[in-house]
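Q: Structure tokens for this one, please.
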Amino acid sequence: MTRTSTRPLTPARPLIAIPARFAATTSALRYAAEVNARALVEAVWRAGGEPVSVHPADPAAADVADRLARFDGVLLPGGGDLAPHRYGATDTHDSVYDVDDLQDAFDLEVARRTLDLGLPLLAICRGLQVVNVALGGSLEQDMGGADREHRHVVHPVAIRRGTLLEQATGAEKTEASCYHHQRVDRIGDGLEPTARAADGTVEGLELPGRPGWFTAVQWHPEDTADQDPAQQALFDALVHAARHRR
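A: Here is the predicted structure, written as tokens:
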């Protein structure tokens, strides 16, 4: 006689694709690696998602839309700078760092295809800049000296009412952990600012009227998500939208 389990079935975690970042060295491996920040992965896990690192392959060799179709949501993480030629610049500021052509090509295609597919998308720091450039926007290559950079600082950000960002965080102001020396210059087609720092820096972007859940922040919510419910709520909202889409 076969015994059947009476244990309730646990719903499968929504699959959240996170494009990996290239790393020249890591402490535990003998080779260059593809990585994602542990704090970022853990924030997705706490939210109930299954974080999946995705290999940045040449978009010309593997259809990105087909690769994304199996996922329930996408998180575009932070990382190095985009190559300035990607947004029409003819020169490169001395401060631009960690440019990787394959990473740029893959991330830009991920942004476009995710939006086309209507997959839930949370874009963080470089991720926000990638979406802005993918939609025809540009970046200020360097914000200036130490008094203007948003590196290793936590500062207040004002959030626009009625936005997905406000709905997710439940706040009109939040303390944002920032690490960036670039910011949005020309805003991409259809995008609207949802948050700003005191100096006017765009700290959030959304696409009103576009199908699918999408919000982007210039700061790093994963830095403080384990302590600040408003920051963790961004990952919760992504996973909720992914679960609802599934």
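A few notes: The mean pLDDT is 94. The chain is about 25% helix and 25% strand.
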